[in-house]
Amino acid sequence: MSFVTDIFKSPKPPPAPDYAGAAQAQGAANVETARVEGRMNRPDVYSPYDTTIITDLGDDRFRQDYSLTPEYEAQRVKQVGIQDAYLDTAGRLLSGLPQETFSLASLPSQPGMIDRSSFTAIPTMGNIDDYTRRVEGEYFDRALSRLQPQFDYERDTLRTQLINSGIPQGSVAYNNAMSELTMGQQDSLRDLSAEAIRQGQELGDAQLARATGLRSFQISDAASQVAEQERMRDRQLADLLLSREVPLSEIATLTGLPSPATRGGTVATTGLNVPATSIAPPPIFAGAQQQGQFDQASYAGQLGAYGARMSALGDIGKAAIAASDKKLKKNIKYKSKSKSGLNIYEFEYNWSPQKYTGVVAQEVKKVKPSAVFENIFGHLMVDYSQLDVNMERV
To answer: What is the distance between the alpha carbons of residues 303 and 164, in angstroms, rounded to a whole number?
Structure first.
């Protein structure tokens, strides 16, 4: 029985990792690693050109003694002499440099904003609407002047035909025929009105497009003129700067200093390039994190297995028997009552996110104890076959 009890015993969570201790140990390891790496990256260097000796002064302090071989020391002395001569020449050239403050007064003025005062004015929407209505009216009047004689002719012709056919004026047939003709002529007038509106809108849109197109061309042309003025000014400014930089660059060449146009640069050195040594500190904190993650994953697996075992308890005996102990459930929400007055809840088991509906064994035991019994692990089970409630998966 102890074996069975162990199988269904709820797993205990793993102890919390000591992240603070791991972080302190990691910090100490990082410091020691940095010290070792610093010592390893300060070797004594001997080459055909020079010698570098490193002395450990303690407390993470070092002294570097550098010396050239006699042959290269003699060359260095010669180079110093040549550089002194260059400096003397540069000093003489300094007297010929312009003494006045650099000024842009000789350059053309900076182009200003584009002057739009002479541009073609863009018509307002009110202007366009007035123009559109005028075009519509003129188009309609011209077309109506051509249609009206035709309408009069059609009315006279129809009146003559009706009278000749023996249909007197004022009769129902006469009035119907004349009304039909009138409606047809009114349809023609409505079509004419729609066509006049379309013509007016097209001409209004064309008028606006011509105005905006001309305005865009004027702006583009003015912008091109401003851009050309800026390019000319930039070229003149570049020439002015070059005239100042040339003597400065000559002096910089003689003195070995960076010229105004090329700041920075490199300094040639003799000696050997010793590859740097890199040492990674022991991953103490990362190991503690990984161990904590492993423990949590193992605990989650144990919980899943425990949930599966507890779910299996509901299948022991008849299918209507299920684990219903409140201690085995979470997220319990009241839903309704059965006909017999039992509370029906929605819940999840502690080991699963699956939702179910059913009863709570502790409540059923108070009103129908015969439907509740205790399993070997002390959890309450419910025989749903004795109730008017079914346990269902949501």
So the answer is: 108
